[in-house]
Design brief:
The structure is a single chain. The chain is of the alpha/beta class and 378 residues long. It has 2 domains: 234 residues, Aspartate Aminotransferase, domain 2 (3-Layer(aba) Sandwich), CATH 3.40.640.10; 126 residues, Aspartate Aminotransferase, domain 1. It contains 12 helices and 12 strands. The strands form 3 sheets. The chain has a 7-stranded mixed beta sheet with strand order 1-9-8-5-4-2-3, with helices on both faces. The protein starts with 15 loop residues before the first helix and ends with a helix. The N terminus is likely disordered.
């Protein structure tokens, strides 16, 4: 059987096929905005917000400048600040904890479920104190966290839940869409996401008109009407150009998601065919969940050696995420030490993401798995 050669050229992510299939529509949308000369909020953004709320299944959606700012404005809307605590998993993209620190609150870290990489719900519930104001579960890699126990614990203690759904648009939990389960849902449209913009862009989903109006006010420096500031917000506006691009792409998300899910299923079969399922720990999809595979993350021994081996054959990989929050230098003052959250630390040393984008072919996937088999089986 063939092995991927150095010129195989299988990138971790290839956005070009998606763009080329929609190029004419995207260009027309960009020209529409340019011709309108409406570059800040306006009807393009409003139309995007209506469309994306319907797509996600949320009562209200507010476009913002990035997934990071979606988290930040949600914390601000809850009035979280100095003296407050917010519980987060220690294994995630930095923004999850960074935004908590930016509003002056203390991030309280907990470990992960080693099977799903998502927040350990028992540890999260046990970490609630009288100072806890919110829990931020992360739907990591496109798989929802186990929300029911978190929501029950949060309700019992009067704590808000902010879903970090940056990687999970279209994901589901027991028949409910990601981003509609907690008090706030936060999404990212960073170009590498399943629904990606042409730069930074994000979204906040909320259940009530009151929350919607508050987030809208906060995204324009807390003003309403213009130049009259009842509170202090920030500049968190989504650009109409990004909204226009996302309006073109959004109707295709379901098809792209199914392509990723099909590729994930093919990987599972290929790893079994090549007798790697005892060496490589594959992603799980618990019953009742709908995984959207923003990343296809496996756990392997000798991770860094394997990455070098795959790179020599032109196969792209990435590590999400090599350093848990509790051992990041910027959080040293919180008093955590290495060994505090062993499951997250173990994952950080063993996880690697493989190519999973929708345009990836079966032949390319076989080459990826063949190359992994060559590394482990010689």
């Amino acid at each position: 059987m063939s092995i991927a050669s150095e010129d195989t050229g299988i990138p971790l992510l290839d956005l070009r096929p998606e763009y080329e299939s929609l190029r004419d529509e995207i260009v027309a949308a960009l020209v529409r905005v340019a011709d309108s000369q409406q570059y800040i909020l306006g009807p393009e953004v409003e139309a995007f917000e209506r469309a994306i709320a319907a797509l996600i299944g949320a009562p209200h959606a507010i476009g913002v400048s990035s997934g990071t700012d979606a988290l930040l404005v949600s914390l601000m809307a809850l009035g979280i600040g100095n003296g407050d605590e917010v519980i987060t998993p220690t294994f995630s993209f930095f923004a999850t904890a960074g935004c908590v620190a930016r509003v002056g609150a203390r991030p309280v870290f907990v470990d992960i479920d080693p099977a799903t990489y998502n927040i350990d719900t028992r540890q999260a519930a046990a970490a609630i104190t009288s100072r806890t104001k919110a829990i931020i579960p992360v739907h990591l890699f496109g798989l929802c966290a186990d929300m029911d126990p978190l929501l029950e614990a949060a309700r019992r203690h009067g704590v808000a839940v902010i879903e970090d759904a940056a990687q999970a648009i279209g994901a589901g939990y027991k028949g409910r869409p990601a981003g509609t389960l907690g008090d706030f849902g936060c999404f990212s449209f960073f170009p590498s996401k399943n629904l990606g913009a042409f730069g930074d862009a994000g979204l906040v989903t909320v259940a009530t008109e009151e929350q919607r109006d508050l987030v809208r006010k906060l995204r324009v420096h807390g003003s309403s009407p213009k130049y009259y500031h009842g509170l202090i917000g920030g500049n968190f506006r989504i650009d109409p150009l990004q909204a226009a691009v996302l309006r073109v792409k959004a109707p295709h998300l379901a098809r792209w998601t199914e392509a990723r899910r099909a590729n994930a299923a093919r990987y599972q079969a290929l790893f079994r065919d090549y007798q790697l399922d005892q060496v490589v720990t594959l992603p799980q999809e618990p019953t009742g969940y709908a995984h959207v595979f923003n990343q296809f993350v496996v756990r392997v021994p000798r991770r860094d050696e394997l990455r070098a081996h795959l790179a020599s054959r032109g196969i792209g990989t990435e590590v999400y995420y090599p350093v848990p929050f509790h051992v990041q230098k910027c959080f040293a003052s919180l008093g955590y030490s290495r060994g505090a959250f062993p499951l997250s630390e173990a994952a950080a040393g063993e996880v690697v993401a493989l190519p999973i984008y929708g345009a990836l072919t079966g032949t390319q996937q076989r080459l990826v798995v063949e190359s992994i088999a060559a590394f482990f089986h010689g």
